[in-house]
Amino acid sequence: MNHLLIHLILLVAGCFSSPLNLLHHGKRDSDINDLLQSKTAYKNLPPLKSHPSAEERTLKAGEIPNYVTQYAPLVFLYSEEKYLPYNIEKYVSNFRPTWRNGTTIDILGKNPKDPFYQNQKLNLSDLEHLPNSKEELVFLTSLSDFDTDPEFITGKNNKPNLYTGEISDAPVVLIVTDKGNGWIDAYWFYFYSFNLGPFVMGFGPFGDHVGDWEHSLVRFYNGEPVVVWMSAHGGGGAYFYEQLEKESLDGTGIGIGNGKQPVIFSSRGTHANYPSTGQHSHDIPYAILSDFTDRGSLWNPAMNYLAYTFTLNDESDEFEISYGNGSHPLREQRFGKWLKFNGAWGDPTLDPDDPRQHWSPFEWKYIDGPTGPLTKNLLRTSPCQRAKWWNFWNGCNIRRYIQYGEGIFDKEGNNSCGHFYSRFQNKYIRRIVETLTMGGWICFLADLFYG
C-alpha cells in the first residue's frame, strides 16, 4: 500500500515539467529519475566532469558567454535588511591580516617597523601575498570596533536602483567553470560585511560573524539554463530553472512573470537564499530556527560584477583563475589575484572575556568570519556545495517545484502535500487522500527524498 502511495505521489509530482524540455536535443522523453537523485551524469546527456580535458571544454580561459549574464539571478533583499551588500575593495581597507592569536602578518611593500603599521590600509591586491596556510587560518581583523555598526559593516547606502536593480558600489563576483561536454557552471558570489545570526527561544543572536559570502549556481547545458542552486547556512537548495519564478529588469521596472532571470530571496540578517517569501525553518525541527524573506528591494547583480574563469591548465595540470570580461573593463586586472586568499574574511571568534562576546546554549554570539569563493567546492558535479549533517544519504535533490515559505506573513504558496491536495476539489475525496497519505507524512518523506 505504501509502495503504491509513493508512486501515486511521484506521478502527480511528475506532472510538473522538467527543464530538459528547454534542451532541443531530442531528450524530452528521457527518464529523469537520475536527475532527481542528482547523479553526476544527467540521464541521456553527456556527463559533467570536474577535470574536463581540453577537447571536452567549450570555453577558453577568461571567456564569459553572454547567456551567463542574460540568465543571472535577481535577488530580493529583505525589506528591513540592516546589513546590505558591500564593496570588497572598500571592505578590506578597514582590516589588517592576523593570525588567530592577534599577531599581525607582514604585508608585502609595507614596513613592519613603522609604528603605525597596524593601521596601514589593506588593499584588495594585497590579499594574494598573504600566507595560504593549511595548518593555520589567516584572519582579516577589524581596525575599529565592528560592534558599533560603522558604515563599512552596514553598507547602509547600498540600496538597489529602483529601475535597473544595480548597486553601484557593491560588485558581485562571477566565476565560470567549464564542466565539459557542453556543461557550464556560473557561480554568483554575493558579499555582505556582516552576518546577523538568529534568535532561538529568546536566546541570541548567536553565530554572528564579520564578513559574509553567499552564492548561487546556474548550471547550463549548451547555453540553456537547467538547474539553479542557492546557498543557505552551509547547505542550500537546488531547483529546476523552469520551475523558479523569473523576472526582468531592463531599465523600465520589474517585468513580473515575463522575464528569464531566476529570482532568489535573501533572508534577513543571515542572507541565506531561498526561492520564495515567508518563514524558512532550517537545521532544527519544529521551526525553532528560521529565516525570513520578503519582496524588498530587487537587486540585479548582472549590472555590476567582477568576472573570472576557473580553468584547468593543461600543461601544469592545475586550476587557474583568469580575468574575464566583467561589467567594468580592466577592473579585475586592477584588483589582482585576490581570489587566491584562502583565509577568513573577518575577525576570529572573540575571546570569552571580550565584553562584546556572549554565550548562548547554542553557540557564541561572535564566531569566525567565513572563507572566500575558491573554498566553496567549485569543481562539484552535484549542484549542492555539500551535504548537511542530517543528510546521511548525501543526497542533493533537484526540486521540481518551489519550496514555499511557511508562517502567516509573506507566505505565497503551499508546501509538499499542499500541491497534491489542491488538485482535489471535492472535499470528501480530498479528505480520503489526506487519510491515505497519513495527514501528509508520506508526502513529507517523498518530498525529502525526491523533491
UniProtKB/TrEMBL annotation:
InterPro entries referenced in this protein's UniProt entry, alphabetically: Vps62, VPS_Associated
One Pfam family from the record: Vps62
GO biological process: protein targeting to vacuole
Listed GO CC annotations: fungal-type vacuole membrane
Keywords annotated in UniProt: Signal
Signal sequence coordinates: 1-17
Presence of keyword Signal: yes
Protein name: Vacuolar protein sorting-associated protein 62
